[in-house]
Amino acid sequence: VYLRFAHEPNGDWYPWSPAAGTPPETYVAAWRHVHDLFASKNVENVRWIWTVNVPHEGSSPITPLYPGDEYVDVVGVDGYNWGTTRPWSRWQSPEELFGPTLDELGRLAPGRPLAVTEVASAEAGGSKPDWIRDLVGYLDSHPAVTTFVWFHHNKETDWRLTSTPESAGALSDALHRRHIAR
After folding, report:
1. What does the radius of gyration of the chain's CA atoms come to, in whole angstroms?
2. What 3-state DSSP class applies to 4?
3. Which of 82, 100, 150, 172 is deepest in the core (most CB within 10 A)?
4. CB contact at 8 A, 166 and 133
């Protein structure tokens, strides 16, 4: 079981984040407490994923929120290419979106596997199928990234892989090309 507890603490939308009034040391203590409850029951089949959101204006620094290597098995990041769906957003490549955070996580938790625990792209502002293909190539160029999870929902915008036939085929194409290249 991979447990992603109290995710995106650097954002401002959850009560456990500093922007919502929870000090980083309280967040870290809570994480460690929950982790220790599992350990006290000799639970050995849980892997702990600590996940931040890609930084944005108003987000909190991530380093003070890290619970520590003895409490984290995998470090993760959530990020969305909002395209031009919002007045504050613009089209971003996967590298622009994730590069700085993946680098920071690698420095913060060297040797830990990295996961992109939420990712999706809007249609507005660029080519979503090309973005999907670029994402697979970009993540494949980072050996520490072991997995990614697509946020397949029609929520603030249509994040689904199946938002268009071209988007639906893009992931399959990218993974097929990756498989052939290996």
Report:
1. 17
2. coil
3. 82
4. no
Name, in order, each residue with C-beta under 8 angstroms of 148's C-beta and a sequence gap of 6 or more. Answer: 115, 116, 117, 119, 135, 139
Q: Hey, what are 37's tokens?
A: 């409850």
Helix (H, G, I), strand (E, B), or coil: what is residue 97?
Answer: helix
H or E stretch at 101: helix 94-108
Site of tokens 């029951």? 41
Return per-residue pLDDT of the chain as tens, 182 residues. 999 999 999 999 999 999 999 999 999 999 999 999 999 999 999 999 999 999 998 999 999 999 999 999 999 999 999 999 999 999 999 999 999 999 999 999 999 999 999 999 999 999 999 999 999 999 999 999 999 999 999 999 999 999 999 999 999 898 887 656 55
DSSP 119: E
CA 40 to chain centroid: 29
- Report how far residue 47's alpha carbon sits from residue 42's, in angstroms, rounded to the nearest whole number: 13
DSSP for 6-53?
S--TTSSSSTTSGGGT--HHHHHHHHHHHHHHHHHTT--S-EEEEEEE
The structure's pTM equals 0.93
Tracing tokens 């031009």 back to the chain, one arrives at 84
